[in-house]
Write a structure and sequence with these properties.
The complex is a heterodimer of chains A (94) and B (271). Chain A is of the alpha+beta class. Chain A has 4 helices and 5 strands, in the order ααβββββαα. By secondary structure, chain B is α/β, with parallel strands linked by helices. In chain B, 39% of the residues lie in helices and 21% in strands. A 7-stranded mixed beta sheet of chain B has the order 5-4-3-6-7-9-8, sandwiched between helices. Chain B has a two-stranded antiparallel ribbon with strand order 1-2. The chains are: A alpha+beta (94), B alpha/beta (271). Chain B: InterPro entries: MenG (IPR032904), SAM-dependent_MTases_sf (IPR029063), UbiE/COQ5_MeTrFase (IPR004033).
């Protein structure tokens, strides 16, 4: 258990590997993701959402995403409404 | 459905509360169905600790054979990039890892954080260096976080029967498969043979649920029987795959009709 914990800590400390970030896209927009080492998260610039990386595992369920503007402004942890993000994305794309 | 054993003494007899609800006793209404994605995620998080070894117990080790067959049907080979959707605690991902070897890559995706933590723990507790080619992703099968044409093979083990929107999942799987590549989906079989159906129901009622009850998870496994009733037959799954964009689809029954394996090909392959 202790060895497992150390392994997870090491994985979390190194964040997400470049190889992994290259094969992933935003689950909603399907656009490339940018690694943010400061916050240990994956950023979808196309829709302004960040997805956390926890214990070395990217959390790319749409509801795990946080809208970047809201997070920076209020330091809140409001979750993303996937339908709202999808509607925003579609409006931006049209 | 994959499950692992943990000490009965460490299991809580009261289920963790769902969002917006108070803690409830284990034995809730038998007629209540687990419908929405959130509830299913909570269910799989809850049974994660008792996932893996129960399969060995309940199937007398047969599930290992069915899973190896599913890998073979997927066409995965050395050096391939492959995806296991609804990977759970990683049984299929580990088999894929051995198949594609150190030059290949395996991605295991699941919406249950607890299942993925167990998968990651199993990966790091193994001495096999080839398992280093596995990456775990928490994600939803209906919104796969991969570009188009990413994978040489995709497997789904006991997942397609548990997702809310099977068509959307198959459409997404088709999207991420390279042209000419296959998906291999193993799951319980909804048989049109009355004898097979009766035998399956008998197995669940008199073998699976009592065994799960020992660990306080009888209701979770009663869900299994209700969810099988909502499955599609082999023919219906074949049609669904074609509607999702696959150019060919075939469903094979295994395990004496208890299990079934759908194999579908994205356009570009001529058998």
């Amino acid at each position: 258990m202790l060895r497992f914990g150390r392994v997870l800590f090491k994985e979390a400390g190194t964040g997400i590997s470049k190889t992994l970030s290259e094969i992933l896209v935003c689950p909603l927009s399907k656009q490339p993701l940018r690694v943010c080492e400061k916050t240990n998260s994956l950023i979808s610039d196309s829709i302004g959402v960040s997805y956390p990386v926890v214990d070395g595992i990217p959390r790319l369920v749409p509801s795990n995403g946080k809208i970047i503007d809201d997070e920076e402004a209020s330091n809140s942890n409001s979750a993303v409404d996937p339908d709202a993000v999808k509607n925003d994305h579609q409006r931006c794309s049209s | 459905m994959d499950n692992a054993i943990m000490s009965a003494a460490s299991l809580h007899r009261t289920l963790p509360a769902l969002p917006g609800q108070h803690s409830r006793p284990v034995f809730r209404s038998k007629t209540r169905l687990v419908r929405c994605s959130n509830e299913r995620q909570v269910l799989f998080d809850r049974i994660a600790p008792v996932y893996d070894n129960l399969n060995d117990l309940l199937t007398v080790g047969q599930h290992r054979i069915w899973k190896r067959m599913a890998i073979s049907w997927s066409g995965a080979k050395k050096g391939d990039n492959v995806l296991d959707v609804c990977c759970g605690t990683g049984d299929l991902a580990f088999l894929l890892s051995e198949k594609v070897g150190p030059t290949g890559k395996v991605v295991g995706l699941d919406f249950s954080k607890q299942q993925l933590l167990i998968a990651s723990s199993r990966q790091h507790s193994q001495s096999k260096t080839c398992y280093e080619n596995i990456k775990w992703i928490e994600g939803n099968a209906i919104d796969l976080p991969f570009p188009e044409s990413s994978f040489d093979a995709v497997t789904i083990g006991y997942g397609l029967g548990n997702v809310v929107d099977r068509l959307k999942v198959l459409e997404e799987v088709c999207r991420v498969l390279k042209p000419g590549s296959k998906v291999s989906a193993l799951d319980f079989n909804k048989s049109t043979n009355p004898f097979s159906t009766s035998f399956q129901e008998w197995m669940i009622d008199y073998v699976v649920v009592p065994a799960a009850d020992i660990y306080g998870l009888a209701n979770e496994y009663r869900y299994l029987k209700r969810s099988i009733n909502e499955f599609l037959t082999g023919k219906e799954l074949e049609r669904l795959a074609l509607n999702a964009g696959f150019c060919s689809a075939k469903h094979f029954e295994t395990g004496g009709g208890l299990m079934g394996n759908l194999v579908a090909v994205r356009y570009g392959y001529i058998p």
